[in-house]
């Protein structure tokens, strides 16, 4: 499916879920799966919990592990990896211009503003915590919203952070709110 999307010029995005160690999914060789599919994934947005559960990594997640896992997704062929780490924020790393040029149309169109990045994006603190369920999915939506608007990677990742905070607060960001956030980030000098 990912290969077919690539052949049609579609930008692909992949998120993961935590793997229950008692499920059949825990029997899958996820390391092998990632190596096979990442060349066709333009944007991967897993959490560190998703990755450690899939790969049966027992190490307590720290910044080094988050960065290592994000870079490994790029080594496997992904163009952009954003690995979230809860209240710590997320680590974003992206490949060079050549890999982004080979991505789907939406990402290749902004390749110069998305290439060769490696940085931590701070979490946006929610005003109130209602639930963290869906925060990662909403963050991915914010990132893709930024991409669809043609913003640079720094503004898109900060939009992702704001979208996640809204989800934690029990809200869905409106189009008007997203537009306001994007304008605020642009005024602050974020690409």
Layout: helices, strands, pairs:
Blueprint: H1 2-7, E1 13-14, H2 30-37, E2 43-44, H3 48-54, H4 63-75, E3 80-84, E4 90-94, H5 97-101, H6 105-108, H7 111-114, E5 118-121, H8 135-148, H9 153-168, H10 175-187
Parallel strand pairs: 1-2, 2-3
Antiparallel strand pairs: 3-4, 4-5
Concise synopsis of the structure shown:
The protein has ten helices and five strands; from the N terminus they run αβαβααββαααβααα. With 191 residues, the chain is an alpha/beta fold.
What's the quaternary structure here?
A: single chain
Computed over alpha carbons, the radius of gyration is 16 Å
Number of helices: 10
Q: Which class best fits the helix and strand makeup?
A: alpha/beta
Unreliable stretches (pLDDT < 50, length at least 5) are: none
Q: Tell me, what's the shape?
A: globular
Mean pLDDT over the residues: 94
Order of helices and strands: HEHEHHEEHHHEHHH
Give the DSSP E fraction (strand runs of 2 or more residues).
5-15%
The number of E-state strands comes to: 5
Query: What's the N-to-C terminus distance?
Result: 32 Å
Describe this structure in words.
A five-stranded mixed β-sheet has the order 1-2-3-4-5, sandwiched between helices. The chain is built from ten helices and five strands; from the N terminus they run H-E-H-E-H-H-E-E-H-H-H-E-H-H-H. Helix 8 packs antiparallel against helix 9 (153-168) and helix 9 packs across helix 10 (175-187). It has helices spanning 2-7, 30-37, 48-54, 63-75, 97-101, 105-108, 111-114, 135-148, 153-168, 175-187, and strands at residues 13-14, 43-44, 80-84, 90-94, 118-121. With 191 residues, it is an alpha/beta fold. It starts with a helix and ends with a helix.
């Amino acid at each position: 499916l990912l290969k077919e999307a690539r052949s049609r010029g579609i930008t692909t995005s992949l998120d993961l879920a935590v793997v229950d160690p008692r499920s059949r999914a825990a029997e899958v060789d996820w390391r092998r799966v990632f190596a096979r599919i990442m060349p066709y994934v333009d944007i991967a947005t897993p959490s560190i919990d998703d990755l450690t559960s899939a790969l049966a990594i027992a190490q307590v997640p720290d910044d080094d592990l988050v960065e290592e896992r994000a870079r490994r997704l790029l080594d496997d062929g992904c163009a952009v990896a954003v690995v979230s780490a809860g209240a710590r924020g997320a680590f974003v790393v992206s490949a060079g211009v050549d890999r982004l040029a080979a991505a789907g149309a939406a990402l290749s169109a902004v390749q110069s503003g998305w290439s060769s990045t490696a940085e931590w994006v701070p979490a946006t603190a929610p005003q109130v915590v209602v639930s963290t369920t869906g925060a990662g999915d909403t963050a991915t939506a914010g990132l893709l919203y930024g991409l669809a608007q043609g913003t640079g990677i720094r503004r898109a990742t900060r939009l992702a952070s704001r979208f996640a905070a809204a989800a934690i607060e029990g809200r869905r960001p409106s189009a008007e709110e997203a537009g306001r956030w994007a304008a605020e980030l642009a005024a602050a000098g974020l690409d």
